[in-house]
Amino acid sequence: MRAGKPVPACVKASPRRPGEIGRLRVDGRFAKVLSATVPIPSNGPFASALVPEDLDELYAQELNAIGKVSAPQSLDRPHRGLVQLLKQEQRRRDKAAESDWSCDHPKFDTPLGKRRLRIFNALFLALSKRGHAGDAYDQDGEIHARAVIGDTYLGLDIVIVGSHRTERQQGYVRPAPDLPASTPLALRLDPGFDRKATLTWQDDGDSKLESKIAAVAAATIVAGEKKFRQSLREAEERAKREQIEQERRRQEHLAQLNQQRLQNLRTSGELLRQAQDIRALVERVRRAIDEGSVEIDCATLEAWQQWALAEADRLDPVRSGQIMTHLDEPSI
Question: What is the mean pLDDT of the chain?
Fold first, then answer.
């Protein structure tokens, strides 16, 4: 269909955005026609038309681009990262209307649960203004969330600050459902999903988390870029460790091959001695017959001699080829 028509111009690569790896992933079957490019070096440069080299400059750039952010007071128009969780909540709500079982009730219909969802929603919407994303899901009655900065994932968590009343719900200790929405909260950024927060924002005085969404979003974008840069260093260190381990295994295998070569050499010597002993015995018997000290029928002697020499040849490491097991120096 395209025969004889102009070849379309090559698509220009978009500038690398924060958190992106700067590479395109293609199916492995293209390896025959496309050579894989190396990652960005861990020492940079990292700058692109959209990412300054300095992370402080990146923060200022993103904060300015995000601008003023207002947290919606409702979830009527949720970010797509919350849609699935809200649908689950609605299904529970519908089921609870026909059931008395507490396990059928919505899990985040409390004042504090709704506020958590509104904060995540505001943050995800702010990130989407800069081409990033986020999502949240329910696990064991808790909201688990993450930010997606380019190709980099960061954990997010909203926890209650200070002591508070709790209740045991379905085997888990959870905040009391009647805690007011004004209960102090803290939003924590957990880049490694290992509960080791690197940045934390919280309600303090008259300043609520909702008023800090722009700063949280900008810092999250910077954290995504920072984690990406760190991942390059970690990948290089991992590759170096793997190379060292591979060389260790190679040397270990080589030592085993050399040990086997030495054993094969000793075996050759032993086989050669056995072959020579048999040939010497045959010769000694023939001399004894010639000297008249032994009388053996000629046909019997000839048959025995052929059998004995054949056995000697079978044992002989040169004639049998056993010597080839240690002739060449081992290599991998």
Answer: 91
> Both tokens of residue 182?
């004004």
**Alpha helices (runs of H) in the chain, residue ranges in sequence order:** 55-66, 80-96, 111-128, 213-291, 298-315, 317-320
SS3 content of the chain, % helix, strand, coil (to 5): 50, 15, 35
Cβ atoms of 49 and 240 within 8 Å: the answer is no
Tokens read off for 112:
């504090």
Task: Give the amino acid at 25.
Answer: R
CA 19 – CA 41 distance, rounded (Å): 15
Residue among 301, 303, 272, 277 at smallest CA distance from 289: 301
Q: Are 201 and 172 in contact (CB under 8 A)?
A: no
Which residues have C-beta within 8 Å of that of residue 165, sequence separation ≥ 6? 175, 176, 179
Give the residue among 27, 138, 40 at the shortest CA–CA distance from 91: 138
Position 104 scores a pLDDT of 66
Are the C-beta atoms of residues 124 and 135 closer than 8 Å to each other?
Answer: yes
Closest CA to 229 of 5, 76, 22: 22
Amino acid at 180: P
| CB distance 168 to 245 below 8 Å | no
| Residue type for position 167 | E
Summarize pLDDT for 201-249 with one digit per residue, the tens: 999 988 999 999 999 999 999 999 999 999 999 999 999 999 999 999 9
Q: What is the pLDDT of residue 131?
A: 95
